[in-house]
Every structure is written in C-alpha cells, then in structure tokens.
Amino acid sequence: MSPSGDPSGDGADTSAGGRCTCSSTDEENQNCQHCRRSTLPSSSSSCSLLSLESYPVQDYDKLWRIYSASIKGFTIGAGLKGGLAIFAVLSRLRRRKSSKKAQMVSSSEDVVFALKETLRYGLFLGTFAGTFVSVDEIVSAWGGHRRTAKWRALLAGAIAGPSMLLTGNTQHTSLAIYILMRATVLASRCGIKSKRFGRICKPLTWAHGDIFLMCLSSSQILSSYILKQDSLHPSYKSFLNKHGGKAQVILQGVRDLACGNSVVNLDAIENHYKSSGVDIKLDPQMKVPCSIIHENQGCVAHFISFLIQAYKRALPVYLPVYLVPALIVHRQGLLKRPNTIWAKGLLGTARSSLFLSVYCSSAWLWTCLLFRLFKRCNIPMVALGTFPTGLALAIEKKSRRIEISLYCLARALESFFTCMADVGYLPQSEKLKRADVVIFSTATAIIMHCYAMERDVFKSKYLNVLDWVFGVPLPSYETTPRKNR
C-alpha cells in the first residue's frame, strides 16, 4: 500500500466516484493499475474497465488468499494472547509463596491454561479472517465484484462474527461492546464526512470528548469497584483489586459507610493495619472513611505514597502492550531502525504506567477530598468523587486516549446494564444466550464495510495490519482482485 492510501500502490489518483483521473498523456501512467491502460495498440487511450477474460489467471489465486488470511489471523491472535499469557504466568510465579511441590503443580496448570487460551484466540482470529475472505470471494464470484461492492464486506463481516464462539463457552460481553464502540467511532467518522449527517455528527469532533468519556466511565467503573464488584467482569474485577491497592476489608468498610450502614468490621480493618505494622484505633461514629482508606496518613501524603507503589504495579501491565505490537505492527521497521522503535516503546510504557498510577491514586484523593468537603459519605458522593479521576487520561498520548476511553466505556456499560438487571429494570443476562456474539457480529459487519468502502476513516497503523491480513480492497470499478505481493 502506498503512503497516500492508493490500493494499487502506483500513486494514481482516483476520485470519490471511483474513476481514474490520471492523465492519458502521462507516460508514467501508461500501465495504470486503476484503469489498466497499457501501451498495446489495441488499448484505448481513455480509462477503461478490465474484463475478467483480460486478467492474467496466474496473477490471482483465491484459495491462496483464503489460506494466507487464515494463517495471518491465527498468527496475530496467538501472538497477542500468547504474549499476554506469558507475562501473566510469570507474574503468578513471582507472587506464589506456597511450597515447591505445589508451585510445580500449579505452574504446569497455568502453562496448560495459557496454551489453551493462546490456541483458542489464534483459531478465533484465524477463522474470522478465513471466513471473511471466503465469503467475500464467493459473493464476488457469484454476484459480480462491482455489483456487490457496496454490501459484500458488510455481509462477510457479519457471517465471520460467530467465530467468537471458538474462544470457549465464556461470554465476552466486554470485548464485544468494545468492538461495537470502535465500529460506532468509524460510523461516526463516516457521518462527519457525509453531507446528510455531517451536522448531526459535528459534536463528535469535540477535541476533549475522549477525556469526558473517560470521566463518565470512571464514575461507573470505580463506583462499582467500591460498591458492587459483582457487576464487573471477573478478570476486570481482579485487575481493579490489584491496582486499586486496597484489601477487601477496607472496601467493605467504605461500602458500609456509603450505604448508610454501621461499619461492622472495624476490628478486621484494625487487624489488617496491625499486620503491616500500623497501630490504629477507628472511631465507630466516623462520618467520612478517610481513616479507613489510609489509616494515620493525610490524604495528600497517602496520594504520594500510593502513586509510587501504583507505578511499580503498572509497569508490568504495559510492557506487553507496547512490546508485543512492536513485533507485529513494526516488524519491518525493527530491522531498519530498532533503537528508535524500542526507545519509543519504552517511553510509551513509562508514560502509560504513569497514567494508570495517577488514575488509581487520584481516585482515592478525589473521593477523600469530596468526603471531607461535604462531611458525609454516600453513594452520590462516591459517584461524584470518581468522576474527575478520568482527567488522568490527559497524561496519555492523544492517539491512545480514544482507545482507552472506549475500552473503559465498554466496561462501564457492561457494569451499568448488569446493575440495571439486578434491580429488575432489564432482563437477566443469563436469559440472553450469547448476546456477545450478536453484538460482535454487528460490530464486525460495520468495521469491515468501512474497511472496504471508507478506508480513510481508519488510522494508518490499523490499515497496515488489516491490509496485511485481508489484502487491500479494490475500488468498486475493479472487476478482479489482485494477489497480495
């Protein structure tokens, strides 16, 4: 693919209508890949469409495209999941303090589980890529490449979506909602370009909308972390419990106070602090939970000490986030300028770790300040106190903010709908069999349609990966796809 986004790579310019605008007198374009002109005497000097008969059969192999997409999809799925699984296993081994024999047994179970997850996600993305390309080729052959161009990728993306079932019986609602959020962003970008919907989608161009979404998501996520952890996905709940840095007895004390109940586990909280060498006596008549949250420390002093500890916990999280994609997305650049790419990866790791540590530590600071200001602790105070926590996203690079805010928004929506279902406003999620697959299929249909028809709404790094897996989609006036080179 050329830097300008021209799928043929020859630099010829095409208009929005899909017709080649290259000059017929320009000798450099005498073999234009869009209009298929050649210097043969029988060729017309004007832009003409290529018939199937005139295209070299050996230049394109449909079965090879399907095979290649499947293998590349499997490689990406297994590579990403495998990289994360390796870091997870190493983290568990480091934390485990049981006997040596127990370590050996549990370690082998961790490795087997990691291998299964790696294989499942590899099969998931490999099957998705292979199914999408297969449907794309079949529909193109039966219905015609040009006639089906406007809806073929939409259909293929929807049919490929159920490949999510290969990840196992566990529902992946958060992942499906996140992909749907990504699809919504792409659709909104298309709407902004549109003359019909451009005015409606104008608010979506707000410069700091990503930070606002993060604040909104933080209010739901962190409130649920303190008040109703059951509404969070188990893996995400484990993540928050680790980086939230507070024991369950402390969270229970804050929860009791916020819900208007008397704190019944004061002795357990005091014993928890005594085990770490801090002797504290809690007041049963307390109005704000600051002494529960950070014992004898002041709110600002606790923020500083918590920030240092949180940064150490955040570093292992972002190492695979930056290093694993560097091996996939920048695989060619690593050979040419390895020092630059690795330096950017390490800088990004340090910056993102600072974001996560500030995010977690400021959550406690904002809530403490709000509790002290209003001299009360209740559920609205918890929701309001966790809202400005999302401002920490400003530390991150602008290009990553929307990714993080959408991910957190997906988690927040899942938690919100779970809470609504628990109080009876929505049907229980158990009654909706594999709703995640339906959501995911809808999202992938939108994404793949945009990929085929509205490529300019994607960032270049995503296009590079998608093009590598699926091949560059051709304009609708092309009648026969080209083989990836």
Q: Would you kindly provide a brief summary of this structure?
A:
The chain is mainly α. The chain has helices spanning 62-95, 100-143, 152-160, 173-193, 209-227, 234-244, 248-258, 266-275, 290-294, 299-328, 333-336, 338-374, 379-386, 398-422, 435-453, 460-470.
User: In angstroms, what separates the terminal alpha carbons?
Assistant: 10 Å
Oligomeric state of the chains in view: single chain
- Overall pLDDT: 79
User: Which consecutive residue ranges, at least 5 long each, have pLDDT under 50?
Assistant: 1-59, 99-105, 479-485
Major beta-sheet overview: none
In DSSP terms (H or I, runs of 4 or more residues), the helix count works out at: 16
Using the alpha-carbon principal axes, give the shape. Answer: globular
Order of helices and strands: HHHHHHHHHHHHHHHH
Task: Describe the protein in words.
The protein has 485 residues and is mainly α. 61% of the residues lie in helices and 0% in strands. The chain contains 16 helices and no strands. It has helices spanning 62-95, 100-143, 152-160, 173-193, 209-227, 234-244, 248-258, 266-275, 290-294, 299-328, 333-336, 338-374, 379-386, 398-422, 435-453, 460-470. The longest helix has 44 residues, at 100-143. It is globular and about 75 Å long. Residues 1-59, 99-105 and 479-485 have low confidence and may be disordered.
